[in-house]
Amino acid sequence: MRKVLEKVFDEILLVDVLDSGDSAHLALMKRPELGVTLTKLHCWELTQYSKCVFMDADTMVLSNIDELFEKEELSAAPDPGWPDCFNSGVFVYRPSIETYNHLLQLATEKGSFDGGDQGLLNTFFSSWATTDINKHLPFIYNLSSISLYSYLPAFKAFGSNAKVVHFLGRMKPWNYTYDSKTKSIKGDTSDPTMVHPEFLNMWWHTFITNILPLLEQHGIVKDATTGVKAEEVTEAVSHMSLSGAAPTSPLSPTPAESSEERKERWEQGQADYMGADSFDNIKKKLDTYLQ
Questions:
Q1: SS3 assignment, position 61
Q2: Residues forming CATH 3.90.550.10 domain(s) in the chain
Q3: Label partner for 279 (CA 20 to 30 A): which of 77, 90, 159, 194?
Q4: Which residues neighbour 104 within 8 Å (Cβ) at sequence distance 6 or greater?
Q5: What span, in angstroms and rounded, lies between the C-alpha atoms of 5 and 214?
Q6: Which pLDDT score is estimated for 192?
Q7: 106 with 120: CB under 8 angstroms?
Q8: Dihedral angle over CA of 106, 110, 116, 122, nearest 10
Q9: What are the angstrom distances between the C-alpha of 225 and each of 46, 89, 181, 228, 232?
Q10: pTM for the model
Q11: Would strands 59-61 and 143-144 be described as parallel, antiparallel, or unpaired?
């Protein structure tokens, strides 16, 4: 996979906060809950660049965004959950070892109010909400997929101008199952709590069109003549997770989720309609009982 990344990107750097020689290692020893957060902070060490745009791995660029380099640190779009905080999925910054060390110090001494990088960065860049409106990126540069239905008229009016979509939430594009024949994700996409299916289909189309051929070139994926089909790859990718765990069985809680947590999600109307709680899985469970 790294070989394929090197085909696409100019520079690939491995970041490992568990390395004892890493400057974040000592901070991680004191605040182990901030492991992923401390990984993100490494972007300030890229001092070979004068200015950078950070983007989470669950963002997708829809059109050219080079104009972001005209912005200054720290420029970001408001978070849909609390607009006086910025969302840390996309932000403009200036690499600096001094800033990096200050962020590590803050992480060690105070931690993060939300347990993640967004809380820490909003504490460090606390003047973002009130000081300089020029550092407020328009929402189209970090369009939260889970907020599309909270203000549907606005999405209909301005959504076509979106430049970056951010797949916030537990379900990511690669967690869905994609049907390469119909060129669409499988499942009921009519529920208003789901992310916009057009963006999900676009993510998968990009993967099938641009990434799958590269995987085949490197022998990671064999062609149909040797028994492995592209459809099987998309099926496998749809079950990927950060932990590399195997997909859960229908209607069973995920390893990180207890039965009580799952029940609470259902009661709040946040069932995993496209995954474990999909109509197909519910039907299979019912059929099992009836039989």
A1: strand
A2: 12-138
A3: 159
A4: 23, 24, 27, 38, 41
A5: 9
A6: 42
A7: yes
A8: -60
A9: 44, 41, 19, 7, 13
A10: 0.73
A11: unpaired
